[in-house]
């Protein structure tokens, strides 16, 4: 009787191929999500960016995009933010991950506290830092209470673009470092203690173990963290809008303006395609730069 009842379940497992295909079935929801909300919209944006009103192919939308008076500044500030934020976040996340990996008392709580910003949206993080950097925000109030300021200092002003840039860097550094941190902590936990114990036997110092043992073994995690974070850095938008508005143009912000304010889907799609191409190039660079020795031999 038990054998008879087990047969239908066994046949179902055979039909689904769960004995060998179970990991792929578990990945299926994520794959469908990516296709529905990323691949399909990107494909539509790609075709819209190259189509004219008659349905033919054209590059006119890209020409108009590059003639936009805000295009050069958007490219400049997007790249400046990326090359400033990503290294800072990588260094900060690596230091925190190494501290957590020491497993001192309270290290798990320390990790949870550092990962709190991971649960905040871009816009929410921008509003948090807006309340800090505003004229009557927490920073000015604190400095005034300490007697260091007689009147509020205007940080978020079009007259001080460098201050706006710094405010965005601070806010984005606080918000998104946790993304890199989680990846690096997972990578460090996968490094076998045997390597570190062998290095101790050979008399390696902590710096030597970090440089010659930990970092080489952490290359796959560094690669994944850099790819994810750099792509997000080129898509930065909500934090910039919350803190700087239109005074600090970025590529994603211009795509938003052309879509919602100017009602021009073609040029907005051209901006989206440009961001996608930059992301693909950066990803290819990281994949090449962090290529493992085994892959290079092939």
Task: Write a concise keyword list for the protein shown above.
single chain; 298 residues; mainly alpha; 15 helices; globular
Q: How do the strands and helices of this protein lay out in sequence?
A:
Blueprint (H helix, E strand, L loop, with lengths): L1 H15 L1 H33 L9 H8 L3 H31 L5 H8 L7 H12 L4 H8 L15 H29 L3 H9 L4 H12 L1 H16 L3 H7 L6 H11 L3 H25 L3 H5 L1
Helix pairs in contact: 1-2, 2-14, 3-14, 4-5, 4-8, 4-11, 6-8, 6-12, 8-11, 8-12, 11-14, 13-14
Please give a structural write-up.
The protein has 298 residues and is mainly α. Helix content is 77%, strand content 0%. The protein has helices at 2-16, 18-50, 60-67, 71-101, 107-114, 122-133, 138-145, 161-189, 193-201, 206-217, 219-234, 238-244, 251-261, 265-289, 293-297. The longest helix is centred in the first third of the chain and has 33 residues, at 18-50. The chain is globular and about 70 Å long.
């Amino acid at each position: 009787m038990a054998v008879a009842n087990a047969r239908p379940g066994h046949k179902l497992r055979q039909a689904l191929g769960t004995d060998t295909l179970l990991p792929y079935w578990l990945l299926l929801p994520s794959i469908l999500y990516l296709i529905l909300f990323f691949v399909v919209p990107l494909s539509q944006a790609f075709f819209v960016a190259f189509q004219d009103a008659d349905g033919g192919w054209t590059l006119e939308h890209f020409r108009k995009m590059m003639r936009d008076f805000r295009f050069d500044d958007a490219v400049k500030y997007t790249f400046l933010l990326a090359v400033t934020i990503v290294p800072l976040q990588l260094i900060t996340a690596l230091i925190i991950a190494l501290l957590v990996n020491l497993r001192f008392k309270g290290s798990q709580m320390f990790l949870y506290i550092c990962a709190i910003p991971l649960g905040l949206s871009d816009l929410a993080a921008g509003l948090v830092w807006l309340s800090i950097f505003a004229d009557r925000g927490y920073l000015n109030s604190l400095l005034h209470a300490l007697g260091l300021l007689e009147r509020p200092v205007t940080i978020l002003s079009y007259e001080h673009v460098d201050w706006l840039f710094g405010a965005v860097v601070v806010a984005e550094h606080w918000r998104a470092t946790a993304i890199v941190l989680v990846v690096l902590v997972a990578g460090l936990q996968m490094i076998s203690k045997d390597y570190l114990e062998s290095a101790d036997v050979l008399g390696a110092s902590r710096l030597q173990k970090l440089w010659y043992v930990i970092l080489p073994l952490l290359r796959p995690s560094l690669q994944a963290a850099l790819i994810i974070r750099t792509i997000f850095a080129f898509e930065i938008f909500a934090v910039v809008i919350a803190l700087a508005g239109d005074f600090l143009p970025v590529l994603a912000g211009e795509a938003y303006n052309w879509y919602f304010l100017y009602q021009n889907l073609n040029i907005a799609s051209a901006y989206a395609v440009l961001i996608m191409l930059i992301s693909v190039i950066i990803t290819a660079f990281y994949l090449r730069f962090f290529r493992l020795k085994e892959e290079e031999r092939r």
